[in-house]
Description:
homodimer; 518 residues; alpha/beta; seven-stranded mixed β-sheet; six-stranded mixed β-sheet; 23 strands; 24% strand; disordered N terminus
Amino acid sequence: MHLAYLGEETLTNLIMEVRCKMPALTVKYHLDIPTPSLNNNKGDIDRINASLERASGLRRIHWPLSLLGSISGTLWLPSNQITITAAHDGDRLRVIAVDPGDTTSSHFGLAIDLGTTVVAAELIDIRTGQCLAAPSEVNGQIEYGEDLLTRLHFAGQGDVDALRMALINTVNQLINRACGIAGIDPSHISAVCAAGNTTMTHLFLGLDPSHMRQEPFIPIINHVPILTSGELGLEIAPLAQTYIFPSAGSFLGGDLIAGSLAARMLDHDEITLLLDIGTNGEMILGNKDWLLAGAGAAGPALEGGVAECARRAEPGAIERVKIDPATLEPSYSVIGDISPIGLCGSGLVDVIAQLYLAGLLDATGRFILDKDTNRWRTVNGRTVYMLAEADSASDLPATYITEKDIQNVLRTKAAVVAALTILLDSVGLAVSDIQRVYTAGSFGVHLAVDSAIAIGLYPKLPTDRFVSLGNGSLRGAREILLNAEKIEEACQIADKITYLELNVHPGFMEIFRSAKYI
Amino acid sequence: MHLAYLGEETLTNLIMEVRCKMPALTVKYHLDIPTPSLNNNKGDIDRINASLERASGLRRIHWPLSLLGSISGTLWLPSNQITITAAHDGDRLRVIAVDPGDTTSSHFGLAIDLGTTVVAAELIDIRTGQCLAAPSEVNGQIEYGEDLLTRLHFAGQGDVDALRMALINTVNQLINRACGIAGIDPSHISAVCAAGNTTMTHLFLGLDPSHMRQEPFIPIINHVPILTSGELGLEIAPLAQTYIFPSAGSFLGGDLIAGSLAARMLDHDEITLLLDIGTNGEMILGNKDWLLAGAGAAGPALEGGVAECARRAEPGAIERVKIDPATLEPSYSVIGDISPIGLCGSGLVDVIAQLYLAGLLDATGRFILDKDTNRWRTVNGRTVYMLAEADSASDLPATYITEKDIQNVLRTKAAVVAALTILLDSVGLAVSDIQRVYTAGSFGVHLAVDSAIAIGLYPKLPTDRFVSLGNGSLRGAREILLNAEKIEEACQIADKITYLELNVHPGFMEIFRSAKYI
């Protein structure tokens, strides 16, 4: 069964089916502790542990000192009802919170996508699997550099902690906003699952990622142990269990592993492709028996910030464009149905595809200017194709596309094509062998598959083979919040992946150059 | 094989035999981490974990965030040699320290006896099992009260933390002294094992023990999870594993469990008795199949402080006394071979036994004053038996014994006899069925068995059945430092013990009264 065909609700139900059989990342136990007597003179905590053993089936129960102290107070309440929040850790049960009474109805987890540009979170009700809030924020590290390399360089200067704090603060803002929206107390968040690229993961942990710049491109850590939110500085329950998706190498981060988990790549016999086109064009090809990964340095074209009128997929961004082949007049749809302020990645791909199909663009990505349309304009001395005029009245900028923008997209496309070609070659497969393509990243959500195929960014396959995961990091993270057993699967994915270092692959540049055409 | 017949050295060897097969409370692994390459591009910590898995045979390795940060620094040293200090936790390995190079030769543990009056420690070299230093200090809680009840009352006032700090400070002083004597760095102490009565255990943890005063006499905790020294405030390696012996109830603490472990009571078919005569007369009777425990409120007679000239077993204390039946003249030996300043418990018992045998004392503990000896004196209006005159020149006090002192000792004796009688009755055994008597506590070390038998404090058995454990808490604690598998045995002992609540036992006072005679 494919996520593609599932709405949010069906997905939730599917997850809950599984979840009921498996423990979530944290579990709550409502206990009625027997009153002590001369015949049952076990210690308070020993009586709690006896009840916990029955409830959990685990014999080894670990308490931190900070919680032992809270007990006498809790237990001498009129009733002996308490709720224990705990984490299953193999044959251990780790107690992470104790509350008087029954608080099982307040059991929350946080899924986090540690994006280089945008950090997104989902506040999950662990009982129901429902998402209660899904805020996102610009990554506070932006002030230290737009792109990863700048931040890696900054980290190399010994300022890792500044970057860590910027990221942690962003996450804490998201926690605040999410709890505000849902109207819950942050201290009831007892589980966190985060996914990000290898650099973001390192900075989240306060580890210096700068070594990863030089050969042999070695991260400090791929498989991160479960930590507590207190260690990390997250403002929720101090002992909240925090799982961070493993990386498979410097260039293949937990975000992709989370996507593969959400795509259930290990469940399939059929060949599947996970395609995450963001700062890099990253992909994982394979099935339950093998996973092959590669990344083509794509440049940030599709994340916005490079195309002159680029915007992130946010209200005001043009996300769909059509150009009438007869009139050569464009029409477009704007996120939020307001006046356009720019183009998001999907709009960018649409307009290129439409320009080409309308004969306004040649295969090399150059405008065919003798085609007569009143959309040709000159901006700063260059010819551009104008989508929406500036509106000085309401102070709205013009939205147009330049040949340079198009070259950027074509470079990205070429990188993706080169990477995919090499991956397929190395296992002797053809594009047509790919039974399903999972597209991840905010980019993939909005992208019109036909346009992406038209310009060659997506492989030429029947459109019904394409499945949008939405935000793969968040989707994978949520699954682990609700089913800790999936941690094992995430490890297997990370360990199974063979990473092809394309930057040093001889064939790459050659294919890249020849693929820079529509 | 009985500890009794083992000197310190043989004991150490015996322990080491076992220890080599079993992991100590913490284990050190010296690793040579393979240098990374494009072919081995695992993360630094992942490469360390791979080496650790081979070395330890454990797959699940847990790191605290605080140590992850130290790695890159450590690993980019000229050599990739590091030493990991870790604790085995079921199928887990918990990393607690990382050092560059090979530090396996600096691997130390601390055994602590959390005594109400005196806190004693042993600094143990975990490689060899040798004791490097064995300092002791008066328990800093003394300023809040000489005896347990006063401190329990003080704790009930909400001043638990003052008592905790006083105890922790005492332990930190001991750590300082021990490390000074041995010339080692406290940060190389990675394991601690402590034993104390249930009240001391609670105060060590900062838990309020005052509930234990009232029926149903319930402690907050009997089985204490392994904690870190950092949580407790001990000034050694912050993540040092700290194991605290479990209690079997409010009146049967970890000190007795530690003694039973050292006495290997679960190894014996034969009936054994563990006798710890301190503030209370506590005892455990049984064999590998059953353990029965009881405590008679003995009063602090034998811990010094009550007998007028009482001293702890320290230099200057008279520890042996003989009275010549003909001349009725006393002779004595003094700890440290210096002039006497008082009587320790063993001296106290000796002098009573000798007075009785010399016909200077009747069976009720009254002086027979018409017996003619120039040792009768009058001090503050009471007749006393003078052992050593005051020496105003060197400002030494007189050492003598009063009838009140003797009554105290006889009360203690009566409590011990009453407790033992009831324990034996309840399992239908006679004194003669006891094959071995382990005496624990600093008191038991010095006590002359024949004198203790003479006044009826010890059961009437062949003297070769008596075995002195010395400090049972320290001996048991050391065994666990060197062999973590013994933790399971300590739990079994605590769980196996049936505690007879003698204070509420009808027969107790009756036997007590009739036993208040020599």
